[in-house]
Amino acid sequence: MMHRRLLTALAAAAAFAPAVAMAHPGMPGHTHGFTDGFAHPFGGLDHLAAMTAVGLWAGQQAKGGHGSRAVWLGPLAFLALLVAGAIAGANGLALPGVEWGIVLSVAALGWLTAFGARLPLAAGVALIGAFALCHGAAHGVEMPADADGLAYGLGFVTASAVLHLTGVALSRLAERAGLQLVPRLAGLGLAAMAPLLLAV
């Protein structure tokens, strides 16, 4: 099963990332590694909301005719484009409208979840990927100058995956318990929160 392979990969990344962080003898005294990167998405309401919303919405897609593939392709696309955006941001490539893209991601994913919307698979994946580029670029720009890029990056990618998995799990559990309204209300709350992020 795809989700079992994803969980195995994440567990392996979490297990080996601290060792990777220690394997850079040319960077004495650096203070920002895997743990700091892992904490980063939890420290910003915008990242926390959007990444959880990706999982909530993805969890609703199992009934859309694409089965489990639809559930996991969105989060996987987010993680892949998150990395691409982070590399761009860390190397000084400025993407236009990143902050607006982040706020839009929370609003759009919130509304999609609130309505239980089911887009064509390719369109949904493309939309999530575009939002992920914005979040990744912000991560890259915000990366501390003394960070070990690989370890820090593994940290925030792993945290992002945890948030996706949490959203998927909540959505699927609500579905099985006949509480489909719960993720929809969560999505509505996220959409309502989006304008507040402009003031943060």
From TrEMBL:
Residues 1-23 form the signal peptide. The keyword Transmembrane applies. InterPro entries: HupE_UreJ. The lineage of its organism: Bacteria, Pseudomonadati, Pseudomonadota, Alphaproteobacteria, Rhodospirillales. It comes from the Bacteria. The chain crosses the membrane at residues 39-58, 70-88, 119-138, 150-169, 181-199. This is Urease accessory protein. Keywords: Membrane, Signal, Transmembrane, Transmembrane helix.
